[in-house]
Amino acid sequence: MLLAFLLVAGLGGVLTAGLVMPAVGAAGTVSQATTDLFEDLPSELAIAEPSQGSVILAADGSELATIYADNRINVSLDEVSPHMRNAVVAIEDRRFYDHNGIDPEGIMRALVNNLAGGQTEGGSTLTQQYVKNVLIEAGRVSGDEEAIREATAPTIGRKLEEARLSIGLEQQVGKEKILEGYLNIAQFGPSQYGVETAAQYYFSKPAADLTIAESAMLAGITQSPARHDPVRNPENAKKRRDTVLRTMRAQGFITEAEYDEAVALPIEDMLNVTPSSSTCAAAGISAYFCEYVVDELIQSDAWGEDADDRRQALYRGGLVIKTTLDPAKQQAAYDAVVANVPVNDPSDVNMALSSVEPGTGKIQAMVQNTNYGNATEEDPGALKLNLNVGQSHGGGTGYQSGSSFKVFTLIEWLETGHSLMDRVDSSNQTYPRESWTISCDPTRRDDWSPKNLEGIGGGRMTVLESTRRSVNVSFAEMANQMDMCAIIDNAESMGLKTGTGEPLIPNPSAVLGTNNVTPLSQATAFATLAAGGVTCEPMAITEITDRSGNVVATPESTCSQVLEPAIVNGVNHALQEVVSPRPSSTGFRAVVPGRPAAGKTGTANDDSAAWFAGYTPQLATAIWMGHVESNRSMFNSTINGQFHREVFGGLYPAQVFSQYTARALEGQPVEQFPQVSPRQLFGERVRVPNVVGRSVSDAQSILAGAGFQVQIGSPVESSWQAGGVAATQPASGAQVSPGTRITIIPSSGPPEPPPPPPDEEDDGGDGGGDDGGDDGGDGNNGGGNGNGNGNGGGNNGRGNGNDGGGDD
């Protein structure tokens, strides 16, 4: 009351010229003193649109979410119901169309009413309220707390400044623009800014369609948004609404009949609340992708001056962000994931899927079997952590990739001149520290004894078969013949990343996937194979426009050729063997009916993670399965109602790939992979020199001189003298790739002679010479070198070689 009294007194002495300005101005005789009064008005009073949230759209233009600091949707005045305009003018400023920015009559009326003990009135015009809100908004946008305090200070000085600015503003713009600005900036609910947002929230309709009763309710909220919130305080909201209706009737905005109809409506019957969210939770199954987009927007240097500038633009700038997400593929991905591992499955097992377009990097789908948010009693599995990405985009540290990493060893195998039909030793063995080449970090060398699963591998088998069955030791043998750093370089150049962003570690066990990687980076790496060796950075945003429709940024794919197409064709041929209907193929459950597909299974130590990363020429996808706690085993788990002693990549992840890919590509043409060349399949073939019988040192020189890698095996008895060469693996005369590792088998000398025959009177017969030449070949290696001479006939037949099943 004191403030109102002092304000009137102050206005009487200071703003007399301003109060009569409309009349003076009409006569064209505005004094210089009055003109000076309104100089240097703040630029923020130029009726710029208030801050507004940004909309994130899917690729088809459908809305995913609105991200905002203030929940506000700006609209023009003609998009607001006339009832709403009238209601605001009636309750807030009945002389709005008559005054020049301040209303002395209103101030005096409020003062008298307040002194008389009636309902408290503020006396501020709509223009003054708009000015105050603009100054507050400017302080909030700039982060200037002092400016906000000044704009809300209960002082005479602040009210005088507010009045000065209001008069100046009305000189510059018309009443309609001021009313429009007020309707967009005023608070119409606890977290609803602007009339359009309030209409959408409380009534699920645009502001243009507001009825008399609805308009009166919203107009009444602004006095105290929390106290008059119809959701939490319906009784208070009704009293305030009815006050507005009486005022509208008294001022002739509505008839008696319209008043009676509106005042009779219960608040509860009027409401049709549509919850709003300032986070990506509104995006539903796409919430994690939405958060990825937000992180990408803030981190990207493709637009905006810095991260703070981009954050302000995102939360207050009214941007429209179009993304790469394909809603149909997103739904197909989610359905496939939760059909196999339901949300809140009692096993606590999680599953995540990322899918990208080869050749562009556009993210087509990103889902996981959790609801976005914090865990609650009703939803214990709810999670904000994005399981598809690393820490830079709201994810974790990643998960061990298991045997899916073998593809990068296969790539290096072909790049170094080997072929898919080369044979390697798949038998369990130890690789000593000194046998490893790790040029980028020799300290990573170590003794390593990889093991195949029981009954899997053994003997020499082709690389193609080793890939199809995912035989661990075969790939250890291949990697041991090459530089581990080159294998790691392949993975990183194709986009594979750890969740922490740290480089992949090139230790020997990395061959079997001990690095923690993310599903999105796995999908990116395998998309490189689908695109003929072209890798593309993951891409989530295709266009950013401002609130006026001006294009701010149009990000483009960032791609590069990192593998030769011929090498890729060889890898694709091998990985198509993985995704074949033969039960011995580890990825047989991933077969996509009617389409060629390729991929690789992966299972981490102790079944802590299971993977399938696969692709067609049009789509690449990675599926991870495990626990959020990355080292927790899935042994003896009941998942989706089925008990499993072991969980591996060829099970649920492979099934999800098949189900998702079939649906995602439904109606699209079937595309084939290019054919593998004979060079990649069979390689350049050279004959292994015959060094049997020579000294070991001579044999080493001959084989090394022919370009082979050489290692020494364990001695065996043979007809050759000790220190000579009894045999080689592969055998002399075998056709192999240049640079193949040849194992020299030294001779330990002839076997002990047999015991003398019995005396004639014993008549023991000839005996059974079963000891003859039993060092015949291994596996499919084309036979050994031993020649049995015993009386019972030499065992000169070939060994069978156990090709076994895969480790996945």
TrEMBL record:
Biased composition (Acidic residues): 758-777
Reaction it catalyzes: [GlcNAc-(1->4)-Mur2Ac(oyl-L-Ala-gamma-D-Glu-L-Lys-D-Ala-D-Ala)](n)-di-trans,octa-cis-undecaprenyl diphosphate + beta-D-GlcNAc-(1->4)-Mur2Ac(oyl-L-Ala-gamma-D-Glu-L-Lys-D-Ala-D-Ala)-di-trans,octa-cis-undecaprenyl diphosphate = [GlcNAc-(1->4)-Mur2Ac(oyl-L-Ala-gamma-D-Glu-L-Lys-D-Ala-D-Ala)](n+1)-di-trans,octa-cis-undecaprenyl diphosphate + di-trans,octa-cis-undecaprenyl diphosphate + H(+); Preferential cleavage: (Ac)2-L-Lys-D-Ala-|-D-Ala. Also transpeptidation of peptidyl-alanyl moieties that are N-acyl substituents of D-alanine
Keyword Endoplasmic reticulum: no
Bias (Polar residues) ranges: 729-740
Region (Disordered): 723-808
Domain PASTA: 683-748
SUPFAM superfamilies found in the cross-reference section: beta-lactamase/transpeptidase-like (SSF56601), Lysozyme-like (SSF53955)
CDD domains cross-referenced by the UniProt entry: PASTA_pknB
Family under the similarity heading: In the N-terminal section; belongs to the glycosyltransferase 51 family. In the C-terminal section; belongs to the transpeptidase family.
Name this polypeptide is given: PASTA domain-containing protein
Originating organism: Georgenia subflava
Source lineage: Bacteria, Bacillati, Actinomycetota, Actinomycetes, Micrococcales
